């Protein structure tokens, strides 16, 4: 990488390091993150650096950039179109039978059905790299988007709507049209903008006016997307405040978790991904690491355990020269994977742990996602 590329990389790494340092020095993680999101100039500087790195400097090096995107896309195709979904589902069903457990979901379409078009949520997207694949329906979100095709969203404060259609319409709220008389189908309903609360829109003209007045780049046909307005931000005031639960086939965290300052906030991101995924959906994680495969193996073993407590099973793992690629599947029976997690954490407690990991509280692994950088000394 040339001198300019290294300068841009330092902007990205210094931002991550500064947030982790403030957290380690005792700042409240919620207030710390809120303060960070209000510094518009810092956010734009970071977004610009990441965008230029990815599209100019990393692009020339296939191993550092394109392989991350192509690795995820290849994993998605392998899972949905090359038999992995059915093979893994059948394996889980045998596991449930052995444990005398029942599936949490009884809709058989979740078991083997391959979507005609895969619905993807790309979190921390920056410049929407997965939009080049025609078989993916991508919703790209980022704290500070570098491209107009990416919608502004703070994933940590994003709400996941788990309400049913009946609940969404207000359970008797007088000012909403009954579902059978809606001018806009339920999946096209948006909310926004409002500084204190969102409101439902059930009229095509209102949707059109919202788009024009707020200059948003999402369409009113986006399924389950709720828009709000941020009165504290002078730029990109309209943001995604809510997404529909169990509505995505894939959630992507490409270089996301390293940005998040605390282990519990990273866990919250993973839990949110779980709630956004359909049963049998997958979470694809790319995390940077140029060291040899076993250098941080303990940390990624803990990831497998932590996500199993949520109900994920790891179905793919690969170490490339500059990153680890992992795929976690939202299982059909959460209890089965939680039992595995409990066995594995008990086994780890009985083994010798490197001294640099002494600060890990293994009683809290079920709600914390650690990264190797958590154990680096700050200068």
UniProtKB/TrEMBL annotation:
<comment type="similarity">
    <text>Belongs to the BMT2 family.</text>
</comment>
<dbReference type="GO" id="GO:1904262">
    <property type="term" value="P:negative regulation of TORC1 signaling"/>
</dbReference>
<dbReference type="InterPro" id="IPR029063">
    <property type="entry name" value="SAM-dependent_MTases_sf"/>
</dbReference>
<protein>
    <recommendedName>
        <fullName>S-adenosylmethionine sensor upstream of mTORC1</fullName>
        <ecNumber>2.1.1.-</ecNumber>
    </recommendedName>
</protein>
<dbReference type="GO" id="GO:0032259">
    <property type="term" value="P:methylation"/>
</dbReference>
<feature type="binding site">
    <location>
        <position position="142"/>
    </location>
    <ligand>
        <name>S-adenosyl-L-methionine</name>
    </ligand>
</feature>
<feature type="binding site">
    <location>
        <position position="124"/>
    </location>
    <ligand>
        <name>S-adenosyl-L-methionine</name>
    </ligand>
</feature>
<keyword id="KW-0489">Methyltransferase</keyword>
<dbReference type="InterPro" id="IPR021867">
    <property type="entry name" value="Bmt2/SAMTOR"/>
</dbReference>
<keyword id="KW-0808">Transferase</keyword>
<keyword id="KW-0949">S-adenosyl-L-methionine</keyword>
<comment type="function">
    <text>S-adenosyl-L-methionine-binding protein that acts as an inhibitor of mTORC1 signaling. Acts as a sensor of S-adenosyl-L-methionine to signal methionine sufficiency to mTORC1. Probably also acts as a S-adenosyl-L-methionine-dependent methyltransferase.</text>
</comment>
<dbReference type="GO" id="GO:0008168">
    <property type="term" value="F:methyltransferase activity"/>
</dbReference>
């Amino acid at each position: 990488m040339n001198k300019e590329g290294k300068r841009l990389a330092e902007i990205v790494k210094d931002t991550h390091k500064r947030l982790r340092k403030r957290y380690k020095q005792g700042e409240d993680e919620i207030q710390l993150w809120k303060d960070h999101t209000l510094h518009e100039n810092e956010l734009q500087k970071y977004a610009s650096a990441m965008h230029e790195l990815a599209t100019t400097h990393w692009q020339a090096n296939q191993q550092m950039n394109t392989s991350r995107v192509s690795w995820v896309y290849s994993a998605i195709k392998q899972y949905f179109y090359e038999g992995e979904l059915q093979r893994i589902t059948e394996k889980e069903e045998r596991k449930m039978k052995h444990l005398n457990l029942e599936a949490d979901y009884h809709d058989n379409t979740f078991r083997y059905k391959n979507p005609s078009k895969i619905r993807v949520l790309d979190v921390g997207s920056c410049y929407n790299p997965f939009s080049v694949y025609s078989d993916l329906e991508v919703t790209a979100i980022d704290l500070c988007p570098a491209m107009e095709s990416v919608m502004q969203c703070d994933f940590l404060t994003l709400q996941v709507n788990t309400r049913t259609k009946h609940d969404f319409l207000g359970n008797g709220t007088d000012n909403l049209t009954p579902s059978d008389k809606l001018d806009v189908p339920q999946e096209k309903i948006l909310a926004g903008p409002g500084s204190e609360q969102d409101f439902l829109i059930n009229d095509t003209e209102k949707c059109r006016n919202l788009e024009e007045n707020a200059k948003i780049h999402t369409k009113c046909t986006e399924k389950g997307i709720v828009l709000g307005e941020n009165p504290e931000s002078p730029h990109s005031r309209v943001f995604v405040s809510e997404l529909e639960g169990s509505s995505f086939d894939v959630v992507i965290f490409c270089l996301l978790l390293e940005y998040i300052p605390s282990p519990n906030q990273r866990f919250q991101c993973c839990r949110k991904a779980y709630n956004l995924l359909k049963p049998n959906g997958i979470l694809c994680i790319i995390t940077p690491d140029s060291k040899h495969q076993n250098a941080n193996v303990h940390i990624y073993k803990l990831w497998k355990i932590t996500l199993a407590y949520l109900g994920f099973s790891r179905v793919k793992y690969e170490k490339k020269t500059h990153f680890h690629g992992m795929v976690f599947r939202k299982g059909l029976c959460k209890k089965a994977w939680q039992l595995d997690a409990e066995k594995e954490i008990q086994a780890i407690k009985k083994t010798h742990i490197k001294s640099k990991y002494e600060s890990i509280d293994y009683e809290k692994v079920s709600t914390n996602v650690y990264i190797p950088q958590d154990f680096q000394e700050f200068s």
